[in-house]
Amino acid sequence: HVQLVESGGGSVQPGGSLRLSCVASGNAVNRVNCMGWFRQAPGKGREWVAHIYRLGDITAYSDSVKGRFTISQDTAKNTVSLQMTSLKPEDTALYYCAAVSGYWGQGTQVTVS
Question: From residue 5, how far is each of 34, 95, 108, 113 by CA, in Å?
């Protein structure tokens, strides 16, 4: 089992920055080979944002955040972070940390207005 706990959400003005963090724990954490972030805006479905592979730091981003968001990890601390810059109102959403396969955090709210 893997538990994920997010932190770092909040409210910011357009153009501002926030950094989200996700700490993974549990007896299966060392079998996780990929972690990422998803988001869900009010009235919309859950959207993939970015992911990173544990080995090789291979990353991928959705077109909507590419160039503005950066995902990184500290494997020694089982932590994944999402640095968000140049935030836009359309980035407002509940942001979820996820781990392969099938593990989700509770979410952290990001509001840009």
Answer: 16, 11, 9, 25
Q: Which residue has the tokens 């944002």?
A: 49
Q: What is the pLDDT of residues 48-73, one digit of tens each?
A: 999 999 998 999 999 999 999 999 99
Least Cα distance to 20 among 104, 107, 86 occurs for 107
- Residue 35, number of CB atoms within 10 A of its CB: 24
The amino acid sitting at 103 is: Y
Q: Which of 82, 85, 75, 83 is nearest to 96 (CA)?
A: 82
The span from the CA of 113 to the CA of 107, in Å, is 19
79 closest CA partner among 38, 22, 34, 31: 22
Q: Cα(95)–Cα(30) distance, rounded to whole angstroms?
A: 23
